[in-house]
Amino acid sequence: MKNSKSQEKTIVVRKTGIDEYGLVKISNGDAHELEEKGIGDARGGVIILRPVELVYLSMNGYRVVIDGREVNTDELIREVRNPNALTVYLDMRKRGYFIKPVVNGPVDFLVWDKGKGPLNSGPRYMIKIVTEGLGIQVMELLNVLKYSEGMGTQLVLALVSSEGVITYYKAFTFKPVKGG
């Protein structure tokens, strides 16, 4: 449900690279409100937003202006290169989790426990998207698992079916107890 025109929030961004937008301003608000929602990353004094985050904001009552032109939710969705990433992002947000996209990493998202966020804690989970029919190679899975455990987080595989249904699986290494 959108706010009245006088209370409507507009987020103004400029395209700064592939899959990233630099925040210029927010009308009727400030960048701190995005930070509190776990949206965007500060880099060089600029808040960087990803396409999935802009879609989420657009779906939650924000008007989005990119490079001086207002864009609607459908146009923003077309900016998302991996539709499964958008499906997982929106599902986790709907479930009440803080979730941040990972760029150029072995996982797709960092996720915080409910009630915790990037301002007061580290991520609890890392999500790797696995597309039905494509799967994941065993060595890639082992490398991602080793990375996640090395960072002190739980790896979660998000299996996305061809119908867009998501099933989450926790992945971990089993360490038998010595002795007996």
Structure, described:
With 180 residues, this protein is an alpha+beta fold. 26% of the residues lie in helices and 32% in strands. The longest helix is centred in the C-terminal third of the chain and has 13 residues, at 138-150. Helix 5 (138-150) links the parallel strand 9 and strand 10. The protein has helices at residues 31-36, 51-59, 73-79, 83-94, 138-150; strands at residues 9-17, 20-27, 41-43, 46-49, 62-66, 69-71, 99-101, 109-111, 125-131, 154-160, 166-171. Helix 2 packs antiparallel against helix 3 (73-79). The chain has 5 helices and 11 strands. The model is unreliable at 1-6 (pLDDT under 50). The strands form 2 sheets. Strands 3-4-2-1-5-6 form a 6-stranded mixed sheet. A 5-stranded mixed sheet has the order 7-8-9-10-11.
Order of helices and strands: EEHEEHEEHHEEEHEE
Return residue spans where pLDDT drops below 50 for at least 5 consecutive residues.
1-6
Give the number of helices: 5
Tell me the β content.
Answer: 25-35%
Shape: globular
- Order of strands, main sheet, comes to 3-4-2-1-5-6
Helix content range of the residues, please? Answer: 25-40%
Class from secondary-structure proportions: alpha+beta
Number of strands: 11
What is the average of the pLDDT values? Answer: 87
Estimated radius of gyration: 18 Å
N-to-C span = 60 Å
